[in-house]
Amino acid sequence: MLNNHQKVTAAYTFGTGAGWHGWMPMLERLKVSFMWNIIAPILTRYKGYLGWSALGMGEDLPLDVYKQWKRWCSFPHYFFHDPQYPEMHEKYEQISMPLKAVNAIDDKWALPHSRDVFMAYYKNVTLHTADIDPKEFGLNEIGHMGYFYAAASGLWDDVFSFFTSQLPKTAN
Predict the structure, then answer these.
(1) What's the whole-model pTM score?
(2) Domain boundaries, position 147
(3) Number of domains in the chain
(4) pLDDT digits (tens, 9 = 90+) for 10-59
(5) Which of 2, 80, 89, 150 counts the highest number of beta carbons within 10 A?
């Protein structure tokens, strides 16, 4: 979506997925459906924005951002299938860089399959994916937001290694 993406030399993502509830386990589908169709509309009418922080679910979102996100999440392939944004295919095909996409196997909002659906639109990247088990890092869970908790600091070693490996090699 960035017009100057060529200035980015590499990217690393945690928990990226297509956003569609159909890629989620059944119980999570029901929870997300309830959130999109009951809780969020009530909350946005009351507050004028999506008050995620009141629910302990992240940062608050402006109303228009919430509406756009909800719309994109209604498509199995996120904004790539939104007829209002036909240029997304071409924009993502132009991106060329090393990209590592890591998803926790307990991330019910962005399971590895959801990530793979989204990442398939990066046609010209050197894509590396990894599915991580929280237990391998001594964690009970990672989920969708746990990558950023202090207890998950061990996950970041790979991030640093990945970006270090992308640095230009210097002559000795």
Answers:
(1) 0.89
(2) 97-163
(3) 1
(4) 999 999 999 999 999 999 999 999 999 999 999 999 999 999 888 888 88
(5) 80
